[in-house]
Amino acid sequence: MSKPEQFESTDTRKPVSGQTAPAAGEPGPGAGAPRPPSAGVPPLPTGPMAATGKVAKTRKAKKSARVGAARAGGSGGTGKTVSGGRKPHIGMVVAAVLFCAALVGGGFWSGKATTDPTASAEYVALNQSAQTTTKQRDTYLTQRDGLQEELDQQETDMQDRETAVTTAETALKTKEGDSDKKIAEREAAVKKREDAVTGAEKTKAANTVADGTWTVGVDIEPGTYRANADVGSTCYWGIYTTGSNGDDIINNDIPGGGRPSVTLSAGQDFNSTRCGSWTKQ
């Protein structure tokens, strides 16, 4: 606890003639008795109230000195005490600075909060651009959907056409197979007929004898042969022993007409002159 401050007496009154000055610390004459007030001046307090008033005045003077020093330091002063007073407390300076910053920041953010960003020209321009872009996007999406539908329809039509082509090709191959089979069958039948005709022709050719001399069993088959057409008067035929060179006549004739026939055996030669062709019966 701090000690109470000691105050010196400020009573400078001189003793009245005939009175001695009181010693230090002793009350003078009339001490404790109230002084008669002067005209127009209020009486000074006495006793404990007088001491209390003095203490209050002293403390008020010191506080005024500290505030003045703080103001001098904040406004670029040297920071020295004013009239011998102490320097201002650092906490008070910091509190003042923080208070000023809070006022400035609060005003700044308050201004920011009260400003409507949607009312700016930049915001309006960006909003219009975004709306235009959105409409263009919606238009493009609609066009894309339409094109996608057309593409799907074209793909479906193409698949249907491919299916139809495959079906037609299968049917054509079947017909071609049938045609090839029929053609092969027809060709086989024709060949068979040709072979039959050829065989018949060969057989007929083998069984047909024209004018000339033929050895039976070598050149022609044994059997009965008949002229294919009526012979003329100059027709001559003869049968000889083989190897006799026509000297050993077995049978001969000049028919003079009609269709003569002869029977030939192995070991014989047959000669036909101007009689035409003969066919084995």
Describe the overall structure.
With 281 residues, this protein is α+β, with helices and mostly antiparallel strands. Among the domains are: 56-98, no CATH class; 125-190; 208-280, no CATH class. 49% of the residues lie in helices and 12% in strands. It has a four-stranded antiparallel sheet. A hairpin with a 7-residue loop joins strand 4 (236-241) and strand 5. The N and C termini lie far apart (177 Å). Residues 4-9, 48-52 and 75-84 have low confidence and may be disordered.
- Percentage of residues in DSSP E strands: 5-15%
Low-pLDDT regions:
4-9, 48-52, 75-84
Question: Mean pLDDT, as a whole number?
Answer: 77
Secondary-structure element pattern, one letter each: HHHEEEEEEEE
Q: What is the count of DSSP helices, taking H or I runs of 4+ residues?
A: 3
**C-alpha geometry:** rod-shaped
- Describe the sheet with the most strands: 4 strands, antiparallel
Category from helices, strands and their pairing:
alpha+beta
Radius of gyration: 82 Å
Strand order in the sheet with the most strands? 1-8-3-6
How far the N terminus sits from the C terminus, by CA atoms, comes to: 177 Å
